[in-house]
């Protein structure tokens, strides 16, 4: 199991960038915990790989513990996530400043939502981040845009 602290900002997307040099992966994930639990436990199929992740904390800095699970374990747990699922296509690429972005294009009930996340080495690095023109509103601190909230409540009515 890998444990790490992630520092990331999340934005709505105004317009899709050129994705010719980005990698694409289909993702489906479901949540095993309830919306008001203080931690979230999710299972995820990312391409042909399967994971279970525990996340805690809110906003800019969160703790994340992730471990690989088997396809059989994923299939066994998947029915427990009914009503708490997200399906999306993730595009991973590099920004001009060499930071990586993860652009999620949501499917199903969450279409046409598009969110982009950028991970940083430190909180201080987020202060110097020059936001690309294709990024929209910063929604890092809006709980309704967390994947767990999207999975249970849908797209927030207000930003």
Automatic annotation (TrEMBL):
CDD domains assigned: CYTH-like_CthTTM-like (cd07761)
- One short Pfam name that applies is CYTH
- Which superkingdom is the protein from? Bacteria
- According to the entry, every stretch annotated as the CYTH domain falls at 4-151
- The name on file for this protein is CYTH domain-containing protein
Its source organism is Neiella holothuriorum
